[in-house]
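User: Can you recover a sequence for this backbone? Please restate the input before giving your answer.

Assistant: Of course. Working from this structure:
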């Protein structure tokens, strides 16, 4: 490099102003964010956590937002005025719920899966018609009480079993809250609704119901005259390798992930040719 070029480069670098970096404590960050909350109007947002991983992420996220908004009590008051709602669905009973309120955590357990399969085999399709349309009758779900046991059809079975009595009403309530609150913040009447689905592809619960969850939310949002922007955030097998020493389990979570990714690929690559056609149980 020529000396002249070096000098020009050095002079140019010397003219760059480095901004002052402000280091704040978490409490100071919370105060700044809290003070600015009234200055912006976030779009209506629904955050759905599926399975154990999704539930814990949603719980942690809401806890952090409460802290940013001024602490648990003040944060809750401001949260109630924001068009943001959280929902968590899990087939495992989660006893450590701290921030999620009643109606935000939906327990999808206490299901006798073998009895449902037996009824379907014996021709009682009236009671479980929608489940019988897709579930393999060779499946042996057992009792679904403490998770889906890394079996994807178990997760989807739980979604269908609780769809009409728990899942659809809670999703509608969350959506109606955001739709009612948003115009009060100065936003338009029929905005785009942001949907974030957080889950793992590795287990049975989230991996088994993520497509149905996305489909139903898009359908419900369309019914109120809005558009939906759906974003999926999913954990892959390497996330859990550090806690799984069993080779069989490691292979199993990779199989679940591969199956979930295949479904996504089929929908993307065959768009228009492949239609997601499903009937959900309604009383």
């Amino acid at each position: 490099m020529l000396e002249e070029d070096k000098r020009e480069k050095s002079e140019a670098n010397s003219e760059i102003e480095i901004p002052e970096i402000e280091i704040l404590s978490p409490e100071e960050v919370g105060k700044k964010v809290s003070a600015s909350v009234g200055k912006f109007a976030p779009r209506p947002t629904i955050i759905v956590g599926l399975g154990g991983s999704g539930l814990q992420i949603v719980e942690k996220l809401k806890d952090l937002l409460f802290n940013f908004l001024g602490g648990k009590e003040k944060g809750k008051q401001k949260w109630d005025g924001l068009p943001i709602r959280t929902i968590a669905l899990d087939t495992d009973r989660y006893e450590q719920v701290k921030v999620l309120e009643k109606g935000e955590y939906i327990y999808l357990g206490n299901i006798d899966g073998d009895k449902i399969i037996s009824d379907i085999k014996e021709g009682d399709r009236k009671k479980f018609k929608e489940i019988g349309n897709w579930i393999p009758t060779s499946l042996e779900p057992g009792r679904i009480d403490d998770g889906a046991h890394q079996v994807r059809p178990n997760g989807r079975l739980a979604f269908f079993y609780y769809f009409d009595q728990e899942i659809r009403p809670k999703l509608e309530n969350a959506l109606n809250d955001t739709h009612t609150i948003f115009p009060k913040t100065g936003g338009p009447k029929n905005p785009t609704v942001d949907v974030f689905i957080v889950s793992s592809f590795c287990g049975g619960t989230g991996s088994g119901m993520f497509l149905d969850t996305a489909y139903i939310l898009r359908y419900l949002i369309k019914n109120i005259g809005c558009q939906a922007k759906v974003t999926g955030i999913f954990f892959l097998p390497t996330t859990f390798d550090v806690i799984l020493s069993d080779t069989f389990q490691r292979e199993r979570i990779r199989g679940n992930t591969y199956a979930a990714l295949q479904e996504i690929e089929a929908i993307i690559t065959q768009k228009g040719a492949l239609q997601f056609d499903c009937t959900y149980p309604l009383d």
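That completes the design. Residues 247-269 form the longest helix (23 residues).
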